[in-house]
Design a protein that fits this description.
This protein is an alpha/beta fold and about 425 residues long. Helix content is about 50%, strand content about 10%. The chain has a 5-stranded parallel β-sheet with strand order 2-3-4-1-5, with helices on both faces. It has a two-stranded parallel ribbon with strand order 6-7.
Length: about 425
C-alpha cells in the first residue's frame, strides 16, 4: 500500500522544510547545529501537522545519520535497545520519539546514558507543554523548541510542490486546482499541513477525470475532502479574514446579534481554533480592565470548547460571546504598554536606578547596587515615595484609566490617590 502524500513529501534536507524559519532558516539554531555538526538532543512541541517529524527527517537527511522513529507510548524498551545497538555498531542514530511526554521511567532510565554519550540524538515530539509534562531528567538533557501552526503562504507552497513533484507527489496526475479551492485548502486546516496534503490527495484520487483527462478540483470537492466548508462564496478569497474581522469588531462594538451571526459563520466553517484564539484576544484587548472577570470566563469557555469539540463547543462559545458583547470595554492596559514599548524602541529606556538594582551578590554594595531601597511593606498603606522609572523617564505617565467599568473605576481612584501622594508626601 502506498504511503500517504504527507508522508511521501517529508523533507529530505533542511532546505525542503516548509515553515518554521525561526528554527531552520539561514542563521537559525537548528541550521547552525547541523552545519557545525554539533547536534544535540531536542524536544519539538506544538500542534499536530506543523512539522515536528519533518524537521527530524530533514536533520537526518542533512547529516546522513541513520534515522529511526518510535512512539514513547506504544513502543517498548526492547525497541529502544535495538536502536541503541545500531548506534553502537554504526555510529550516531537520530531517533524521533513521538509522544515523548509519555516516556515511562523504565524507558527513560535506559535512554539517558545514550543521550549523555551522544550515540543517540533524540528528537522528541509532543503536542504537550514540555515544561509541564516532560520529566526534568530528560528536559535537562535536551534543548526545547516550539513549533507554530504554518502560515497560509507555507501551506500554499507545500500544495504547489506536491502537485508538481512527479517522484513523490501528484505530478503524474493532470490536476487543475481552482484558485478558490487552493485558498480554502490552505486555510481550512488551520495550519495543519498533514491534513491539507492528505485532503488534497483524497480529492485528486477520488475525482473522476473530465473527457479531456483533466482532474478538475473545485472548492466544493476540497470542502468535502477536508470536511470544512468555506465561509462564503468569495472569488477573491478574502471572506475568511473578513468574517474574523467582523466578529471581533462586532463584539468590540457591543452588537450581540451581529457577533452571534459571525460566530455562526465560523462555527459552520468548523474554525474552532480560530474562534477560540480570537475570543481570548478580545477578552484582554477589548474588555480588559473594565471587566477582568470576563477574560477569566473566556479562558474557561475556550477550555471547555476545545475539550468538547464541535458541535457542542458552540454552547460555551455562544455564552461567552454574549458576555463579552454586553460587557463594558477598556483597552487602557495594552495601550499603556504599547506607549512604553514605543519609548523603548525609540531609545528612551535609560538606566535602572541604582536603588532598584539586584543586590544579591558579593560586591554589589561596593557598586552602590540596591543601596537606599525602601521596602514598601514596612510603611503604612504598603507605599513609600521613591523613584522607580529611569531618570530620563521619571515624570512619564503611560496608563490612562477609563471609567467604563466598576473595576477600572476603582483602579482609577487608586491611581489618582498614588499620584497625589507622590506630589505631597
Amino acid at each position: 500500500m502506498q504511503q500517504p502524500l504527507a508522508y511521501r513529501m517529508r523533507p529530505r534536507t533542511l532546505d525542503e522544510v516548509v515553515g518554521q524559519r525561526q528554527l531552520v532558516g539561514e542563521g537559525k539554531i537548528i541550521r547552525r547545529m547541523v552545519e557545525a555538526k554539533m547536534l544535540s538532543s531536542m524536544i519539538l512541541y506544538g500542534p499536530p501537522g506543523t512539522g515536528k517529524t519533518s524537521i527530524a527527517s530533514a536533520i537526518a537527511g542533512s547529516t546522513r545519520y541513520a534515522f529511526r522513529m518510535l512512539n514513547a507510548a506504544t513502543d517498548t524498551k526492547k525497541d529502544l535497545q535495538i536502536v541503541a545497538e545500531e548506534a553502537k555498531m554504526s555510529g550516531t542514530v537520530i531517533l524521533l520519539l513521538d509522544e515523548v511526554h509519555r516516556l515511562d521511567k523504565t524507558k527513560q532510565d535506559f535512554l539517558l546514558p545514550h543521550l549523555e554519550s551522544g550515540k543517540i540524538i533524540m528528537i522528541g515530539a509532543t503536542t504537550e507543554n514540555p515544561y509541564i509534562t516532560i520529566n526534568p531528567a530528560i528536559r535537562s538533557r535536551t534543548q526545547i523548541f516550539e513549533v507554530f501552526p504554518l502560515q497560509e503562504a507555507d501551506i500554499l507552497q507545500a500544495i504547489d510542490q506536491a502537485l508538481h513533484d512527479k517522484e513523490r507527489g501528484l505530478g503524474e496526475f493532470p490536476v487543475t486546482l481552482a484558485e478558490d479551492a487552493r485558498l480554502h485548502l490552505s486555510r481550512a486546516t488551520n495550519g495543519d499541513l498533514r491534513s491539507a496534503l492528505n485532503g488534497l490527495e483524497l480529492a485528486v484520487k477520488s475525482t473522476p477525470p473530465q473527457e479531456d483527462g483533466a482532474i478538475q478540483l473545485t472548492r466544493a470537492i476540497i470542502e468535502e475532502c477536508v470536511q470544512r466548508k468555506a465561509l462564503t462564496h468569495d472569488k477573491d478569497g478574502d471572506a475568511h479574514y473578513d468574517v474574523i474581522s467582523a466578529f471581533q469588531k462586532s463584539i468590540r462594538g457591543s452588537d450581540v446579534d451581529a457577533a452571534l451571526h459571525y460566530l455562526g459563520r465560523l462555527v459552520e466553517a468548523g474554525d474552532l481554533a480560530i474562534i477560540c484564539r480570537r475570543l481570548m484576544v478580545i477578552g484582554y484587548e477589548d474588555v480588559g480592565l473594565a471587566n477582568p472577570n470576563a477574560a477569566s470566563r473566556t479562558v474557561n469557555a475556550v477550555l471547555a470548547a476545545e475539550r468538547l469539540g464541535l458541535p457542542e463547543a458552540r454552547i460555551p462559545l455562544a455564552q461567552v460571546v454574549v458576555d463579552l458583547c454586553l460587557s463594558p470595554k477598556s483597552n487602557s492596559a495594552h495601550v499603556a504598554l504599547d506607549k512604553a514599548i514605543a519609548d523603548i524602541r525609540n531609545g528612551k529606556a535609560g538606566d535602572v536606578p541604582n536603588h532598584l538594582r539586584d543586590a544579591h551578590y558579593k560586591g554589589a554594595a561596593e557598586l552602590n547596587r540596591g543601596i537606599g531601597y525602601q521596602y514598601p511593606h514596612d510603611f503604612d498603606q504598603a507605599w513609600v515615595k521613591q523613584q522607580y522609572l529611569p531618570d530620563k523617564l521619571k515624570d512619564k505617565h503611560y496608563y490612562q484609566p477609563k471609567m467604563t467599568g466598576k473595576y477600572e473605576q476603582a483602579l482609577a481612584m487608586r491611581y489618582q490617590q498614588l499620584q497625589e501622594w507622590k506630589k505631597h508626601k
